[in-house]
Request: fold
Amino acid sequence: MTAAQRLRQPLERLYREFDYGTRVELDAIRFPLRYAAPRDRELVGLLTACLAYGRVDLFSGELEGVLARMGSSPAAFVATFDPRRDSAAFDDFWYRFNRPRDLVAFCIAARDLLARFGTLEKCFLAGDPDPAGPIGPTLERFARAFLEADLREVFPRGRISRGYRHLFPLPSLGGPCKRLHLYLRWMVRREPPDFGLWTSVSPARLLMPIDTHIENISRSIGLTRRRSRTWRMAEEITRRLAAIDAADPVKFDFALCHKRMSGDCLDRRDAKVCAPCGFKSVCRHWRGNAIRRA
Reply:
């Protein structure tokens, strides 16, 4: 039996039976879910994903304040954004690497790109050289559109801040680009909890968003042996999941991530916690020489 065959049943069962409703309220996706209008949802989705480094409870308070100041339609706020008039809305924003000017720059770049393309989906597609090819080059162009925007009003010397660069990681640098892949999952996948707004992009092209939870549980169940979170790890995990569902390989992301976030997976053998787990037959902590006393 192949590795994919051994994983198929427990993964599909987890996907089918997972309590998405409860866990959505503990996930960053809850922020764009508040907005019914597609333009609000894609914009808030991008801002949320860009800030989604660290635990959700750490950045959610800051994001709540930002969204409150943007009003009932963040897309409308950005469309008419004037830094001389509106920058003060972010004066009290402070989250790890990011400062108020990074949000001002985000709004200016988003305003200009939306004025040019109409939607963020069209902006993304404008840099898509091969609609059936790897997602990396397209994601690179999308991130660069924000990094190369005219931001002289915020960064008059032409050197953008470390915090703003952090919002838009580049695939060419080899990192996992977790937050941008998370954004694409929200926008592209057709099934809940994701939105399926970007109908011109195939879910088959997506890569897994790799955070510490996905990294560790993927290593436990044999989706990767790599020790560092990189673009190659994202490709490897996705490739192995594609052997189970080639049309939608990242559909397992939410359930796998929250299985570990919730404490149902400890990345070690535990007789009580692991008792109901469907992955024991494929988990490295429960087979061969890896078995340890509980």
User: Anything to note?
Assistant: The two ends are 28 Å apart (CA to CA). The chain has two domains: 1-19+207-294, 34-202.
